[in-house]
Specification:
There is one protein chain. The chain is 49% helix and 16% strand. It is α/β, with parallel strands linked by helices and 323 residues long. The protein has a 7-stranded mixed sheet with strand order 3-2-1-6-7-9-8. A two-stranded antiparallel sheet has the order 4-5. Strand 1, helix 4 and strand 2 form a beta-alpha-beta unit. Helix 2 packs across helix 3 and helix 3 packs parallel to helix 4. It is rod-shaped, with a radius of gyration of 42 Å. The model has no long low-confidence stretch (mean pLDDT 92). The protein binds S-adenosylmethionine. The site of S-adenosylmethionine has 15 residues, from helix 4.
């Protein structure tokens, strides 16, 4: 042993490090091995993660495909629902057409039966209910708003039943001239041209922050004065604001509001067409409010084909509900 070694062997820290040196080398090797193992397991895991990632991407793509097919099935179901609804209405309409044809077969007063009930004109449920009201309820004073197919019925009724009076209101003079050429207008029937004005519905109807525009016959209440009607047919003016595009009114055909109660007979029927539209439904809601305010008792029923009609009637005419 060299002198230098002898000196070193006297140092405790030298002895400590000397004794632990081999242990440390061993430990170091173990750690390296451990590290290697960890690295290789990490490589394995990253392959697993990559395969998970790929699987996830594939599933997301499949999911997207399923979502798209669910959405297209949903829209298919909606269009089928719509078709079914239209088919149901068409069936109802056809049924009314058959019943109408049978109903008028032996009619004493309806001689000319050439109706064209299509598009914006009256439909079969409307013409049927109107015929039965005229034929069985025999109204005396009739107000008709909107000249057209229904007028073929009302003019023939007035022509046969001379005790009755018919006032037909129409906005379009060209339409009056063209239509009148093809029908007989009896002495007790009067077709009045009345301009159509655009009005803003009063805010008192409590629809806040909305300017509600609507078409109505100008000064109709002044034209009708104090005349009392037991049948009011509402099918004019047009229920939409601008055309094209069609923009439905929130309230449409509101002239009736100004006729309550002054132009109503003690017993009456009001029939409004296009009740499938929100504008006509809202107008009738307010009609009901006005009648209630006047303490006028009434009942209501609906007829429905390709278009819907709402009928408001007083006690004397309650049988109309069974028509
Ligand atoms: C919904 S239509 C209904 C009129 C009528 N009650 C009927 O049964 O045909 C309402 C308005 O459309 C217009 N109108 C009706 N038929 C028309 C036609 N064939 N050509 C042009 N305008 C027409 C008229 O101004 C009429 O007042």
């Amino acid at each position: 042993m060299s002198f230098f070694e002898k000196i070193l062997n006297k140092s405790n820290s030298y002895l400590y490090y000397k004794n632990n040196y081999f242990n440390l080398i061993k430990e170091n090797e173990n750690l390296r091995n451990e590290n290697k193992k960890l690295k290789s397991s990490l490589n394995e895991k990253s392959e697993e993660i990559d395969s998970f990632n790929n699987e996830f991407k594939k599933l997301s793509k499949d999911n997207e495909g399923i979502k798209n097919s669910v959405n297209s099935n949903k829209s298919l179901i909606n269009s089928l629902k719509n078709d079914l609804k239209n088919e149901r209405l068409r069936n109802l309409e056809n049924n009314y057409a058959f019943v109408f044809h049978d109903t008028i077969k032996e009619s004493k007063w309806l001689k000319s039966k050439n109706f064209s009930l299509i598009n914006a004109a009256s439909n079969y449920s409307f013409i049927y209910i109107l015929y039965r009201i005229l034929d069985e309820m025999k109204p005396v004073n009739i107000l008709e708003m909107g000249l057209g197919q229904t007028t073929k019925l009302t003019t023939q009724y007035a022509d046969y039943f001379k005790f009755s009076n018919l006032t037909t209101i129409e906005g379009d003079q060209v339409w009056i001239d063209s239509f009148s050429k093809n029908i007989e207008i009896p002495d007790n029937a009067n077709i009045i041209q009345c301009d159509i004005e655009r009005v803003v519905i009063d805010e008192s109807l409590e629809i806040p922050n909305k300017t509600i525009e609507s078409n109505r016959y100008k000064n109709l209440d002044k034209i009708l004065k104090d005349e009392k009607f037991d049948l009011i047919i509402i099918d004019g003016p047009q229920g939409f604001i601008d055309y094209p595009p069609i923009k439905s009114s929130t309230y449409s055909r509101t002239n009736i509001w100004n006729l309550i109660p002054n132009n109503l007979a003690d017993e009456f029927i009001i029939i409004i067409d296009d009740y499938d539209r929100i504008g006509e439904q809202n107008t009738i809601k307010h009609v009901e409010e006005l009648l209630n305010k006047e303490n006028i008792k009434f009942d209501k029923c609906i007829t429905k084909g390709l278009k819907t009609q709402c009928i408001i009637l007083t006690e004397k005419y309650k049988f109309v509900k069974w028509f």
